[in-house]
Specification:
The complex is a heterodimer.
Chain A lengths: L3 E4 L2 E4 L5 E7 L5 E7 L5 E9 L2 E4 L6 E3 L9 E3 L8 E8 L11 E2 L3 E5 L1
Parallel strand pairs in A: 2-11
Antiparallel strand pairs in A: 1-3, 3-8, 4-5, 4-9, 5-6, 7-8, 9-10, 9-11
Chain B lengths: L2 E5 L2 E5 L4 E8 L5 E7 L4 E7 L6 E3 L2 E6 L4 E6 L8 E8 L7 E3 L3 E6 L1
Parallel strand pairs in B: 2-11
Antiparallel strand pairs in B: 1-3, 3-8, 4-5, 4-9, 6-7, 7-8, 9-10, 9-11
Classes of the chains: A mainly beta, B mainly beta.
Chain lengths: 116, 112
């Protein structure tokens, strides 16, 4: 299993540009999450999903959109990039409920985004 | 507003020392507290605690939760240079979705 993969690893955007951060997991996890981590800080939840077709806002959703059309994929969309969105973005997944139960969120390697 | 505060923010010790990292929280619907280790990139899971007074151990690492005083500690004994990392504390606030509120982390540096 590859686990949680994220693309791209690095990206530089100009103010006002748009982009999609990709996240894929191959563990058949039902729950997926997007976090951002600013320098010297902990992680803040942007959006999460409890299954295909179901998403909800976290602590800091403004300026972002998500979709979950399949179990495996959970892309994060930035529509109008701003310097305040310069951060490292982590995707994570876990499996809660049913016959398989895990407390651990598995994280992807992160995407470092700079907006100038 | 839910809040998780870690202390100290930074700690430098010598190899072989014992360290204690602190995590206090104020959240409206506590479900569990988790510790993660973050080296260069993604956080990796260490412990999950749900009940007061029950110590979780994994090798030289141990952790305990006090739900009355709203804090947890992470102990590392006989530290090694490989323990150098940022240690993150997170609190799960809503049952069924594992929404996590993270503290700002403690940067631990172990000097040889």
């Amino acid at each position: 299993n590859a686990g949680v993969t994220q693309t791209p690893k690095f990206r530089i955007l100009k103010i006002g540009q748009s982009m999609t951060l990709q996240c894929t997991q191959d563990m058949n996890h039902n729950y997926m999450y997007w976090y951002r981590q600013d320098p010297g800080m902990g992680l803040k939840l942007i959006y999460y999903s409890v299954g295909a077709g179901i998403t909800d806002k976290g602590e800091v959703p403004n300026g972002y959109n998500v979709s979950r059309s399949t179990t495996e994929d959970f892309p994060l969309r930035l529509e109008l990039a701003a310097p305040s969105q310069t951060s490292v973005y982590f995707c994570a997944s876990t499996n809660l409920g049913g016959g398989k139960f895990s407390y651990e969120q598995y994280f992807g390697p992160g995407t470092r985004l700079t907006v100038t | 507003e839910d809040k998780v505060v870690q202390s100290p923010l930074s700690l430098v010790v010598h190899e072989g020392d014992t360290v204690t990292l602190n995590c206090s929280y104020e959240v409206t619907n506590f479900r569990s507290l988790l510790w993660y280790k973050q080296e260069k990139k993604a956080p990796t899971f260490l412990f999950m605690l749900t009940s007061s007074g029950i110590e979780k151990k994994s090798g030289r690492l141990s952790s305990i939760l006090d739900k009355k005083e709203l804090f947890s500690i992470l102990n590392i004994t006989a530290t090694q240079t490989g323990d150098s990392a940022v240690y993150l504390c997170a609190v799960e606030t809503i049952q069924g979705a594992q929404k996590l509120v993270f503290g700002q982390g403690t940067r631990l540096t172990i000097n040889p």
